[in-house]
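Sharing in case it's useful to others searching the archive later.

Someone asked me privately for the predicted structure of LuxR family transcriptional regulator, so I'm posting the question and my answer publicly. Question first, with the sequence:
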Amino acid sequence: MTQAITPIRVLVAEDQTLMRQGLRTILELEDGFTVVGEAADGQEACERALALRPDIVLMDVQMPRTNGVAATARIVAQLPATRVIILTTFDYDEYVFDGIKAGARGYLLKDTPADELLAAIRKVHAGESIIQPSVATRLIAEFTRRNAPAAPEYEALSEREVDVLRLLADGLSNREIAARLVLAEGTVKNHVSTILDKLHAANRTQAARVAREQGLI
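And my answer, the predicted structure tokens:
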């Protein structure tokens, strides 16, 4: 006797009625799936997920009351066994990276063919993560951008320090800079020391490079 396969229990969270009903129809026409509930906004998605404990939540990103990213984070935190798949109209938007970071296990476009949607749900239910190839590169780029080390901040130089820096970058010595600006050589030496400190530079060459990179000269 063949043992019946337990269907994958799905909650559909989508604020557009036609889209929500369309997803329900696709799932209910396929063996192995059952739609346990629907939600029209993020707050309702959280409430229904807690009450119904679905295997999968198909989560729209842009919804009223609570957006899909915040709803995803709450559901994942409270229901570790429930997996969230984000749905959106765009192949990349400001919410996608945050949605994945919030714990979503998949990211699909709303124009994904029905057979690919069903296959993605099965894979995520089995423990895999799904991100469509068209957006994977953008997500990686965004991850890299957000995790790049912050550019160092430099203390502002005085007008006289900029004058000294320009001549320093041209390769002039302290004595030559002093003669050009009609300053004491000791004063120039002090300015150079301050410039190196403000630009976090180890030497004159590095200071000149930083100055050019930052558009200071």
